[in-house]
Amino acid sequence: MKAKIATLFTLIVLVVVNFAIWTYINNPLQLPSWSSTMMGVTYNGTRRDFDPAKRNYPTPEQVQEDLTLLADKVHAIRTYTSLEGMEAVPEAAAKNNINLAMGAWVNLFENTIVVPDDISEEEREKILDKNRSIEAQNQKIEERNRRDIESLIKLSNDYPKTIVRTMVGNEALLRARNNLAGPIAKRIREEYRGQGLSEREINDKIDLAVTQAVAEKANELISYIKEVKKRTWKPVSTSETWDIWAKNPALVDAVDYIGVHILPYWEGIPVDLPEGAKGEAAVDYVFKRYYELQQLYPNKPIVITETGWPSDGPPQKSATASLINEAKFLRAFLNRATAENVIYYIIEAFDQPWKIKLEGTAGAYWGLFNVDRQPKFPMEGEVVGNPTWRNFATGAAVLSFILMAAFLFTRKRLKLAGKFLFGIMANLAASVLFWSASIAASQYQTGFSVVFWSILLMMQAMAILVLLTESLELAEVLWHRKGRRTFSPLAPHADFKYPKVSIHLPIHNEPPEMVRKTLNALAKVDYPNYEVLVMDNNTKDPAVWQPVQADCDRLGDKFRFFHLDNWPGFKAGAINYALENTAEDAEIIAVIDSDYILSPDWLKSMVPYFDQENVGFVQSPQDYRDAHQSTFKDMCYWEYAGFFNIGMVQRNEYNAIIQHGTMTMVRKSAFDKVGAWGEWCICEDSELGLRLYEAGYDSVYCKESFGRGLMPDTFSGYMTQRFRWVYGAMQIIKKHWRHFLPNKKSSLTSAQRYYFVAGWLPWFSDALALLFTGASLILTTMLVLNPLHSELPINAFLLPTIGLFVFKVGRGLWLYKARVACSLLQALGAALAGLSLTHTVARGTLQGLFTSGKPFMRTPKYEAQGPLIAGLLVIWQEIMLLSLLIAGIVAMRMEPQFDNTSGRLWIAVLAVQAVPYLATFLTILISVAPNYMPGSKVAAEELDVDS
């Protein structure tokens, strides 16, 4: 009862702390208030369901509703067109006593292509066809321009008291410049290629040519402006960005006032600067550009026809879109504009979700009101960055409480410190998930974005599951009271009846001198009642298998040799044959690999556990005797040691170990109940162990080593071995998945289900990481090729990716320090070896899930180390991905558009993704290096048995 009360207290404390952190992060911000009426806002009355293709423009009733809402908040509004539902605006504005700046949307003509003289008739005809297409398109543009201008003129004359100024075109020259810049740059670079000009000189020529081309296009716009001036009595201008006005004095001469857009967000100017930082904040930047234009054109009135800040969207250099920043910018700008008597129109009245397709995410979020006509923040008093944060904080608290309760109330032997560690991770995981969900909920979603967000949240949920399972393992290893299932070697009592053990030794094409050592060690086993069956399956060369047969004959009647030719089932088929030929009085089946040299006391020390009738199999750890041979093998040795000293020990506490095909013993009668070794599975050992659990048997795991074998000699062999383990695990999942579901039909305990699934989760995580890496490379390519129109993932996904990697590395080193008797350098080597197999694990997982029937892959023994080039060819996929990721990092670093927090986080994510592939490259280099270490032999060498 005390333990449950302590656990409940822990849960409550952590949930309260979590909610307090949410409260602190979402603490209301005090900003200068704005309590007056705004001078003007831009207006487009489209609703949430607006689609330009459907032409479902706002109705007169909707326009009237909007202007009634705005009537006591603004003196004036500005439209971008006089069509598409905006024809109703003057009437509604008049009724609500709102002044109106009426606009006409104008597109400029596309230039036709000049036909060169020195081309073929076929090429000439292609250009002429293109020009005819351009002329037809220009005709449509002219017709659309004409309708809008005629509507503008009519409305201006019909509502002279309401419409106070007009605007012909909105960023028409800016769009023209963007369209012209690419072809002009290409032409200039081709023209001056090989002439010795510097990059700066070429760029200067490009800028000059673009400026001249824009000035020529300005003449089209000026002709429209002159027409409207001639046919109306109101001041006429156009709306362009400040730099277009600065470079086009002829345009200034043609208008009655300068209608300027100054949008610091798009130029990467931050809303505010850290204390002591150099540069300009956004509002200062707006007025700087305003007064620069005033100095350039002192006799021309200036109206800021667009300025504002989006509440959401990707960062632009140092500019961050957020609700807080929108409130900061607008309150500061409005107060200063009033003080300095500047005429302005804030962009915009209402959010426009349809603009996402045109301008990216930020295009939707410039409104003072959201698309449902609700104010996004108050103009007076405190501002909260996420007004609905309490809902998500509550969700995070509930989820974290459920997670903690589900795990911690069932861990009676877990100390308080371990419960706190897992509880902290559970709260962190739940908060990250609900933080991401809060961002999704605050955005305007489309069908595509809903699918996209669903995929991201599922991937994040998978990462969180991995985090929680690994956190729980860390807590249990470090702070678990000694359990009831801690097994040690037994000393049989004097009257112990030794059951007969049949030791099965399957071999295939193994070096006979290696097998001889194994057989000699088996002959020296200190156990009175055993036999050894050696099954050689499908070795074709008699010079390989006949010496083994001779050794068996030499060692006496206990040893029986079988040569199986064209035998099916690989290793499982061989040991199933051994089962059929086992002595009838044998009660226990033991299996070892052909390279293992046994300790003489293995059977005596472990067989007595079968006195417990519920014990189905007894497992001893895999161990190795050749770690001293090279740095590579030393790394592999400690990587293996981590599993057998950490994972297997912990799983044993819950009767949920993985059975291995060497150093294992199985009750013979259990085969009658569950069947023979599974020849369909390339991990027949693990699959049998699972069937034994499903049949209700228990297991015993003793971490003391009783035999040592040989590790793979090459990195290729190391990869092949791990691929087989992973692929076999996927086969097991596909066959047994129903047993892992929480249903009454499964005889597995909840702990067994948990530990099997938790053990496989990191492999699924590696597979997802491979898919994520591919997606990251595609996204990075898009970002680099089109930085202005591509967006980075939100920080809510980037930060956990980096954090999970750091946690996993730190957790691994912590566990090694606690459970594995190795140095820090050896632990780091083990980590490097484990990371080097990440891509192999990912391939094994994906192939195992979507294919079947992969043949058994034997790990070669005494394999000669090939040249470096051969090793590099083995890891060509890893090298390719590493190269692409490094190229992506370099390209992102060179792009100024991403010189911000999100850009740096994305580079960090790419670096994290590159680490496993770099580990593979380093490990292959280490594996081929001539760095043998004869002076540091492990104790296992003492077990070597001479013939």
UniProtKB/TrEMBL annotation:
InterPro entries: GH, Glyco_hydro_17, Glycosyltr_2/OpgH_subfam, Nucleotide-diphossugar_trans. It is an enzyme of class 2 (transferase). Its main location: membrane. GO terms for biological process: carbohydrate metabolic process. The chain crosses the membrane at residues 389-409, 421-444, 450-475, 754-780, 792-810, 822-842, 868-893, 905-929. The keyword Cytoplasm does not apply. Its EC number is 2.4.1.336. Keywords: Glycosyltransferase, Hydrolase, Magnesium, Membrane, Transferase, Transmembrane, Transmembrane helix. It is found in: Membrane. It is a multi-pass membrane protein. The keyword Zinc does not apply. One of its GO terms (molecular function) is hexosyltransferase activity. GO terms for cellular component: plasma membrane. It catalyses: a 1,2-diacyl-sn-glycerol + UDP-alpha-D-glucose = a 1,2-diacyl-3-O-(beta-D-glucopyranosyl)-sn-glycerol + UDP + H(+). This is Beta-monoglucosyldiacylglycerol synthase.
